[in-house]
Amino acid sequence: MKPETAAKMKYGVWGLICGAVIAMIIGFAWGGWTTSGTTQTMTKEAVLASQAAICVAQFMKQPNHEAKLKELEAVSSWQRAEVIEKGGWDKMPGQAKAGYAVARACVRPPSQIRPQCGDPSPLVRTIKYIKLNRRPLHPLVSWP
Question: How do residues 41-62 score in pLDDT, each as one tens digit?
Fold first, then answer.
């Protein structure tokens, strides 16, 4: 192999390596690429957030949900998940038993599920929305 060819090959290989590293840095930083672990975590958070919304909807379908909300507010914050479990609102349709994470997500602020602004819990936020707008949050949710 000629020395010119060897030098060209050397610089070509180094160019490929540097290009691949730069592409990965740009892809993960700005391109939206994620690892499988990050994707699994994001999926679990999304499922938990949707189950918390279902928990709120089941709570709101109760005929005496305003009285139950006052009971829930009277209980200390670390016992609210137990109240939700006893009421059975954390069980998803078709489930025999719910996980404790759903009850906790139903009563705690979304900022503790996925860091954002200091929002109130989904239950309190939904009730405030209904009181302000005098209509359900979603047209498919029926209210008693």
Answer: 888 888 888 888 888 888 888 8
